[in-house]
Amino acid sequence: MPIIKSAKKRVKTARKATTRNSKTKRSLKSAFKLFTKSPSAKTHSAAQSNLDKAVKKGLIHKNKAARLKKQASAKAKSAGVKHTAVKKAVPAKATPKKVVAKKPVAKKTTAKKK
C-alpha cells in the first residue's frame, strides 16, 4: 500500500482507467465477434465505430485499427454486404458574408529633426 498521497491517487486513477479500458476492449471484441458471426452493414459500422473509439482513447495503435478495418471491409465485401456511407449534416442555406468597405489607412507623418 502506498504511503504518499500522490501515490494513493495514482493507484485510484489507475484502477478507474483499467476498468474503463477493459470495458472499451470488451465492447470492441464483442462487436468484431458479432460482425464475423453475421456480417451486415449495421454490425460492420458498429465494429468500425468501436475501433475508432479505441484509437481515440489510446488503447490500440492507429495503424492496427486501419489494418483491422481493412480486413473487416474485405470480409464484408466477400459476404456481399453493401456499406452505406453516413452523410454529414449540411446546413440548409449558407448565408454569404457581408462585404464591408475598408477605410483608407492614414499616412504616418514623422517630425523632422533640426
What labels would you give this structure?
114 residues, single chain, Methane Monooxygenase Hydroxylase, Chain G, domain 1
Quick take:
Helices cover 59% and strands 0% of the residues.
Overview of this protein structure:
This protein is mainly α and 114 residues long. The protein has a domain at 5-79: Methane Monooxygenase Hydroxylase, Chain G, domain 1 (Up-down Bundle), CATH 1.20.58. The chain has three helices and no strands. It has helices spanning 5-37, 41-56, 62-79. Helix 1 runs antiparallel to helix 2 (41-56) and helix 2 (41-56) runs antiparallel to helix 3 (62-79). The protein starts with a helix and ends in a 35-residue tail after the last helix. The mean pLDDT is 86.
Q: What low-confidence regions span 5 or more consecutive residues with pLDDT below 50?
A: none
Overall geometry: flat
Instruction: Determine the N-to-C terminus distance.
Output: 81 Å
CATH architectural type of the domain at 5-79: Up-down Bundle
